[in-house]
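Report of the visiting student (M.T.), summer placement. My assignment was to run the structure pipeline on a short list of targets and document each run. The first record concerns Isochorismatase family protein.
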Amino acid sequence: MSKALIVLDVQRGLTSLRDVSATLDKIKSIIMAFEKRSWPIVFIKHVDEQDEQSSLYRQKTENLEIVLDTKQHPVFEKSKPSAFSNNELKKWLLARQVNHVFIVGFNMEYCCLFTAITAEHEGFQVTLIEDAAGTVNTEDTYEMKGLDIPDFIGSILNWSGCVEVVYTDELMESDVWNSPFNDVD
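After the run finished, the structure tokens were exported:
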């Protein structure tokens, strides 16, 4: 069994809405750590099925574009918050004997949250990396002064006892890199 990284919706349609460079830097560092170990990485791209004026993912190339280099890693499309709404993702993970998924990307309160819950429901061990899972929304979006969206969602998932939530530094210092399953493809 092995580990895999799911990178959600790092697309121009979201990342151009506000400065998310700190989150993108964390995501890049996680990708590098997974590549160094030759662990599977998959990018997920959100594409709306309907053409809505307010959609962040309008069917325009510049909004759909992933802003990180996907290199040789596969890219799966989805039209709902959970990456698992694309049935090919689970097949791809199982074909690589993945039992533990790590989740990073955007938006924490939608796609990261729903993907983490669905992954756990599908039988995967799940780790969400809180500071590498951001949002372009703010406390004003939800009219909740003082709301730290990633921290709030991270706390809910962590308290569930079903999803592990860590910060990048904690992950890099953890035993996850030294588990007996590291060399399994």
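DSSP finds seven helices and six strands in the chain. The first strand starts at residue 2 and ends at 8. I thank the supervising group for their guidance throughout the placement.
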